């Protein structure tokens, strides 16, 4: 098959498989009487980051470290500049969550941690383990803090799928993520070689945008339903998961080489995007990401992609 077919098929399969993974996991959680609070913090966050994880793992084993890290760095930039930019242009995003500053701070620390860990141009197994430990601590704190706030006993919704159907959907989602990631990496590598474009550029642009589709869909629907906390929270949570879960798991399994040009350029853009997010939501808990702020974010993302290819 032509590389473009592999690429498109990989995108489509990752999109639907990520959605199926979240739906099946929510259904199974309801069967086992797990609250939506725990589901939101763990299952949904993992579900929207699952494409990045599978793509990064697949890429590092295929010897494409630039696609592996570029996918995460590019996704984190895209989540803020592209996703939040587009969402806020469609519908201005209000920030009401009182402790959003803490979530942003965790994301910023994760970003700085990745930069420090990459200074020797390699993410080692030990650094991957440290990332995973930080992720576990963050998720534990998030569940504890949310439960403390919500003293009223939550009524768990009844599942709409039987346990057998939910398990079958989960298996299909897992298979879809595996093959989707494989096809996406194969297609991206072949296109990069044919166009004479580096794997770093393809990973940061095409692959990263593809794996950010679940975040875009989730945040857009949340904004339309006026659930803006979910919209912002999904972006911040996804960026934390991308660094601590995706690169944490990938580096633990196999150390990843870091491209020097990525460290001197793309990492700076990722750090800048994090600071832009903070500037966009000030004043904290009462800020609004207006259409003009969204336009600036989107324009900067277009500029970044343009600079990648010239």
List the helices and strands and how they pair.
Blueprint: H1 3-31, H2 36-61, H3 65-90, E1 93-94, H4 100-117, E2 122-123, H5 125-149, H6 163-195, H7 199-211, H8 213-224, H9 228-253, E3 256-257, H10 260-281, E4 288-289, H11 291-309
Antiparallel strand pairs: 1-4, 2-3
Could you please describe the fold and organization of this structure?
By secondary structure, the protein is an all-alpha fold. Helix content is 80%, strand content 3%. The protein has a single domain (3-309), classed as NCX, central ion-binding region (A middle domain of Talin 1), CATH 1.20.1420.30. The protein has helices at 3-31, 36-61, 65-90, 100-117, 125-149, 163-195, 199-211, 213-224, 228-253, 260-281, 291-309, and strands at 93-94, 122-123, 256-257, 288-289. The strands form two sheets. It has a two-stranded antiparallel ribbon. Strands 2-3 form a two-stranded antiparallel sheet. Helix 4 runs antiparallel to helix 10 (260-281). The two termini are 29 Å apart.
